[in-house]
Design a protein that fits this description.
- This protein is α+β, with helices and mostly antiparallel strands.
- The protein has a single domain, classed as Muramoyl-pentapeptide Carboxypeptidase, domain 2.
- It has 9 helices and 6 strands.
- It is globular, with a radius of gyration of 19 Å.
- The two termini are 37 Å apart.
Amino acid sequence: MVRTIRKKLFIALLLILAIALGYKSTPLVQGELGETEASDELTLVNKEHPLPPEYVPSDLVVPNVPFSFAEDHPKKQMRQEAAEALENLFAAAAKDGIHLVAVSGFRSYERQEAIFQRNASQMGEAEANRVSARPGESEHQTGLAMDVSAASVDYRLTEEFGSTEEGRWLQNNAARFGFIIRYPKEKEHVTGYQYEPWHLRYVGSSAAQTIANKALTLEEFLSQGNQRA
């Protein structure tokens, strides 16, 4: 009895210490993410790690950047930290003569469901799931992702963007502002999705620099035991 109590006290002390030190892990086990995990800037959202349908970030704002459309729409939104980082990225790009536009940020579970069903009806579920996420499996629901484009590709979201001056600038500079190209070329077997040079994901500057320098995906970065400090 005494030994059991001591063991429980020891475990409780370890948990208190971990919380005091600000420890956060990013799980790679399969299953739906909880609220705390979903809110972490390094959260992994993919086909094995879905978000709950009701998850909506509490700090969504509209970044002060050019958009490809004028109307007020939820897809202009990002989480505040990511939005500020995007503003800095766009400002630096403009100084270099690179003119980007934001196309699509936050999407609710319901909006993603409609998009996926439309794609599945047109190309079948398997192909649809290469080019779009099922509801709950989209990074856009985190508020940490933004699709971007440029006039050089008529503001479309296309692989051609990766070979444009704007796409190359993003590839070389996004990490300085905490963003990664989330679905890189020749990594579909890891991410589960086709190459998307337009899809920016905010992970914070430290993680982004490591991911870019080592040519990793977020899955590979996290599988190496990396986590938010």
